[in-house]
Amino acid sequence: MPSPAKLLHDQPIAQRIDALLSLSKQHAEHFCSPGAWLARQRYMAQHPTSIVVMKCMDGRIHIPHATRTPLGIITPFRNLGGIFDLGWPYLGELLTEAVIDAAKSGHATLMLITYHFSSGHQARGCAGFDCDTEAAKAHAYAIAKQAGQLFGSDHQQVYPLVCGFETDSDALIIHGPQGDVLDIRDWLGHCEEALDARLASLCPDMPKEIQKDLLPLLEGNLAHVSALHGVKRELDIEHREWVICIGRGFDFLHLPNTALIIGPYGPDLAEPIGTAAAIIDANMQAGRIPDDGFMLLASTPYQHSGVDRARAELKSRFLSDFAEHVIQREHPSLAKKMRRHTAVVHWPTRRLDSLD
User: Fold this and answer.
1) pLDDT per residue as tens digits for the range 315-331
2) Looking at the chain, which residues constitute the CATH 3.40.1050 domain(s)?
3) Quick check: 116 and 167 in contact, CB under 8 A?
């Protein structure tokens, strides 16, 4: 049977958009449920380290799902190819703000800097690096170096950790500072209790409280990978994206090969928007998706009503207008098939509110 994501790609554009917005609503309802709320409160009381993850927009890289961590614990930063530069003003401000908020509460920050690859087929790797895993890994190390420059090279307050994600198995590969690795796939069938000692030897410079709070992610990933072991999976090799997302607040979007997500971080948004449009156009030309339309979704999160929401609305409208202008200029024929949807996200509830 085809996966739900694959079935979605074959529907008329109006049905695809309705299904995507329905998925967002379901995500918010689950996030706000009593059980999910209590799970977050209990988890944060037991594991107070702030966790941020730098990752690709690829829907297969769903760290909370792959580590069995409650939604809302891990703060994501997503961009095409997982390409970031901490010198980018807006990105640096957001990241620094998250670190300072944690520090004021007496907590350290674990910064997971991810790259992804497929062990089964190179073509299932990261398209942002032309499926060159070594290039993606080198970029992750470059971000880690910048994090040391920004937050301290002793890594006592912010610990940057390069982390591979093998998409065929959903396994994490932790890279230690001396070049050693902890590959969760090597622990299948072995006792998870030994992970604690292995992590301590792999990252001897990691503060004990951060080790303690990283360990549940590794244990959860081992349980997740073990449950998938031997199960036939739809690996979604083929590009079938039909949504361009620009902005932030797309936590609900973890369908493989569905959306191209462009974070509003870099100094040049036009280039990734043009690249995303070219991918959508190629998907239509090759018949991988219907040519009846594609979705442009702009979103900005906000915390409070009043000025904070008003600013989010202005920002979303700007991003939507900007993206439309780029697509009309560079892909005029494709632009005629565009379905714009502009929204804001109430971050405490993850509710997506349409502005259209």
Assistant:
1) 999 999 999 999 999 99
2) 48-228
3) yes
- The whole model's pTM is what? 0.88
Supply the pLDDT for residue 279.
87
Predicted confidence (pLDDT) per residue in 128-182, tens digit: 788 899 999 999 999 999 999 999 999 999 999 999 999 989 999 999 999 999 9
| 1-45+239-356 fold | 60s Ribosomal Protein L30; Chain: A; (3.30.1330)
Residue 91: which of 263, 253, 270, 249 has the closest Cα?
263
Torsion of CA 65, 125, 128, 139, to 10 degrees: 80
**Cα angle value 329/330/332 (rounded, 5°):** 70
* Record: fold of 48-228: Beta-carbonic Anhydrase; Chain A (3.40.1050)
CATH 3.30.1330.140 residue ranges for the chain: 1-45+239-356
